[in-house]
Specification:
The chain is an all-beta fold and 112 residues long. It is 0% helix and 35% strand. It is elongated, with a radius of gyration of 14 Å. The two termini are 14 Å apart.
Length: 112
């Protein structure tokens, strides 16, 4: 459905999240907005990475976010290097988007 992001665009150990934004329509005039803040967690709900690049995404467009799965701890929660990012948490900013679809590609190229 969507083109695959080349492996060279994601650093070893990182994953990526493709976010597709819905189309604006009469019923949904505000589908576009700012990319969400993202955290990833392992099977034990330990934070292992994140992306905080809150940039504008237009209606009907998509963005690819690199999830740095080896990031430094935030809020005192240590990162678990080498763990699979089983869970994704997206937090809306002050101009939230309407998400049409997500694809999360793990560091070993599995898609979820």
């Amino acid at each position: 459905m969507f083109p695959v992001v080349p492996a060279t665009s994601v650093a070893a150990g990182d994953s990526y999240l493709r976010i597709q934004v819905a189309l604006n329509s009469n019923a949904n005039e505000n589908a576009d907005g700012t990319a969400p803040l993202v955290n990833t967690y392992d099977d034990y709900y330990r934070r292992i990475g994140g992306n905080f690049d809150a940039h504008k995404i237009k209606s009907g467009a998509f963005t690819d976010l690199t999830i740095n799965d080896k990031t430094a701890p935030i809020f005192g929660i240590p990162s678990e290097e080498g763990a699979q990012p089983t869970y994704v948490q997206m937090t809306a900013t002050n101009n939230a988007i309407c998400v049409a679809s997500l694809t999360h590609t793990w560091p070993d190229s599995q898609k979820r």
